[in-house]
Amino acid sequence: MSEDPKKDTFRKNLMQKQSEAKIVRRIVLTVFIILIIAFSGIIGGGYLYIKSSLEPVDPNDQTAIDVTIPIGSSVSTISRILEEHDIIKDDRVFKYYIKFKNESGFQAGNYKLNKSMTFKDIITSLKEGKLLSEAAFQITIPEGRQLTEIASIIANHTDFEETEILATLTDKEFINSMKAKYPDLLTDDIYGENVKYALEGYLFPATYPYYKEKPTIEEVIEPMVKKTSEVVAKYIPTLQEQKMSVHEFVTMASLIEEEATEKADREKISSVFYNRIDVNMPLQTDPTVLYALGEHKDRVLYEDLEVKSPYNTYQNKGLPPGPIANAGEVSFVAALTPEDTDFLYFLATGEGEVIFTKTLEEHNKAKSKYITNN
């Protein structure tokens, strides 16, 4: 007697599905094994490549190779230069090695390196750097200098005319190139409607060595912008917490720098400015008037206070449109950490002391004592 046709069909279908499942499992297993082998090959090959890249280019070649690291070079730039000179095999491996080891403090300069050097030897050489005296020349930018003054300082140390330098400092194409490189520092605020010079206040006061005999104007200026970026970067998290823009920060620091004397307590000066802003009182700081006038004077006259300019803080409340000079780091710190005071006034004596007072009456008495009678 024959089996039930339905059971026979079911059995055949089941056997066919089991057979197909075995085939699928074999295919999956084969693909998995192939992937494991390929992955192992990639990992192994990658390991061997990285291991090779970490080794000297040629352990037996100690021929000196001249390598110049320009001022302001990033780790990526340094790595690329070293690869171009065959000092290392792969710039990416060198760059990530530096990050992994948390190395920093590389110095610009002219080096004699060779293909037998290890990463450790190269890094040690780059961190030792060159003494400033070995540079072709150096430029010192003091605190509290305006853009026009900085142009004059650069002109005194180079073959460029002051007008050429100022033209570059105000050239929108150059400014935009700096803006692209240092976006956290140079924001759209530098192009504010009433801003006199976009880069005013953004050239940090420091001594800059130059290792080329005749760098371009751009090569002279960029390290100053880069240094400002490095200084300001440390305070950006605090600025974000305080909801203060970088431009406002640099502007406030410039006011503190211009008002401070060597003996001045910058945190107290900072407190006066913030206290005035809090009570909707004009900042009334003389350096902004002089900036509006475009001249330097020992004393601001009452008639000077009438100058029509958005920079005149006697006529306009709040911060001026932008910085009025460059500021040192001490003033940057003061701009973020004003002392907790009730002072609304201050004045500097002839000896450089700064007298802080809470009321206009106290201020006038101090002025009569320390200024009018002198």
Task: Provide an overview of this structure.
The radius of gyration is 32 Å and the shape is elongated. The N and C termini lie far apart (135 Å). Strand 5 and strand 6 (354-357) form a beta hairpin. Helix content is 51%, strand content 7%. Helix 2 (75-84) packs across helix 3 (91-101), helix 10 packs across helix 13 (329-336) and helix 11 (266-278) packs across helix 13 (329-336). It has helices at residues 5-53, 75-84, 91-101, 119-128, 147-157, 162-169, 172-181, 217-233, 236-242, 246-259, 266-278, 286-293, 329-336, 360-372, and strands spanning 65-69, 109-113, 137-140, 207-210, 345-348, 354-357. The mean pLDDT is 86. With 374 residues, it is mainly alpha-helical. The protein folds into 3 domains: 65-130, Dna Ligase, domain 1 (2-Layer Sandwich); 137-233, no CATH class; 236-372, no CATH class. The protein contains 14 helices and 6 strands. The strands form 3 sheets. Strands 1-2 form a two-stranded antiparallel sheet.
Keywords:
374 residues; mainly alpha; Dna Ligase, domain 1; two-stranded antiparallel sheet; 7% strand
How big a fraction of the residues is strand? 5-15%
Give the mean pLDDT.
Answer: 86
Our Rg estimate from Cα atoms comes to 32 Å
Question: Low-confidence segments, ≥5 residues, pLDDT <50?
Answer: none
Number of helices: 14
- Assign a percent range to the helix content: 40-55%
Counted up, domains total 3
InterPro entries: MLTG-like
Site (Important for catalytic activity): 259
EC number: 4.2.2.29
Main location: membrane
